[in-house]
Amino acid sequence: MKNALLLSIPLFISLALCACADSDRDRVSRMVKEWEGKEIVFPEHSVFTVQGKDTVSYLIPKSEYKVIVFVDSVGCISCKLQLPKWKEFIHEVDSLSNGNVPFVFFFQSKDVRELRYILRRDNFSYPVCIDTEDQFNTLNRFPDEMMFQTFLVDSENHVKVIGNPIHNLSVRELYLEEISGMETGSLPVTTVRPDSAEYHYGAVGENETVTKKIFLINTGKEVFRIKGVTTSCDCMSVEYDWGEIPPGGMASMTVSYKAESPGDFWRTLTIYGNIPDRSFTLDFWGTVR
Fold first, then answer.
1. Cα–Cα distances in Å, from 155 out to 22, 160, 257?
2. What's the predicted TM-score (pTM) here?
3. N or C: which end of the chain has fewer CB within 10 A?
4. Does the pLDDT value for residue 1 go beyond 60?
């Protein structure tokens, strides 16, 4: 797409900052602009494996586009990775590009055992580099925020789009538009109100799965068309059997949470569609006993 760099970065800023305070907007805006057109540098000797055990001969290809994914070791690794969603996105990109857009994964962690477990558990067979020495990050000094550690780059490894397409469906659209060279048409905007801003699961037993039904009400004058949902952790899943809500109508979703280790938990669900800020986020709380 011509002038995609000029289109994608400013648009991403507007998408990413809609819910931020003014100070956060300024900080993130400066950071995104800093990475605009920046070259991603790879370590000279990177070892790639399949599921963390079988070393494979993998040369980082020079192609028109690449998706570069860096994940650091801060926080919940499984929540950050969400590998089943990456498999879905890879399939979508492969279908759009005839398999001509490679994905380059660098996972930074000294706990190789945990990464191997997650890779095997999610049957993720794509080559990854487990960067125990943090060489990739040392060369590039990636932002600390998870949202800004994934990049769509051109044949010279210059950043075209920054953002995580798994955790933000609006960013996902930017990736697909850039790769396909087509901009998606916009829909008339409406307003949607959830029946609550936050939801409480209460006390949950360890390894127990609990569900919560939520309701969305279309308070605007246009049909609400949902584009999808994302969750902050793969311990949450969402089920719904509708694609639209007419003006004045209501629809439900069932949100499931599989309890992890004991302690208080806070998870989020983000819903995307033709609303003013393109998305809104709901909070889910509870305590694992």
1. 35, 10, 41
2. 0.80
3. C
4. no
Indicate the residue among 152, 180, 208 that finishes a domain. 180
Beta strand residue intervals within the chain, DSSP E: 48-50, 54-56, 65-71, 103-107, 128-130, 150-154, 159-162, 192-194, 198-204, 209-218, 224-231, 236-239, 244-245, 250-258, 263-273, 279-288
Closest CA to 288 of 238, 239, 233, 215: 233
Q: Which residue has the tokens 């492969």?
A: 94
User: 198 lies in a domain?
Assistant: yes
Query: Minimal CA–CA distance to 228: which of 67, 94, 17, 85?
Result: 85
Give 29-86 pLDDT, tens digit per residue: 888 888 989 999 999 888 999 987 778 878 888 899 999 999 998 888 888 899 999 9
Q: Which structure tokens are listed for 46?
A: 């990177």
Whether residues 171 and 198 share a domain: the answer is no
**Residue labelled with tokens 């857009």:** 101
Do 149 and 164 form a contact (C-beta atoms < 8 A)? yes
The total number of residues shown for the chain amounts to: 289
Q: Which residue has the tokens 């936050």?
A: 198
How far is Cα 75 from Cα 65, in angstroms, rounded to an integer?
Answer: 30
Q: Which domain holds residue 33?
A: 4-180
208 and 280 share one domain: yes
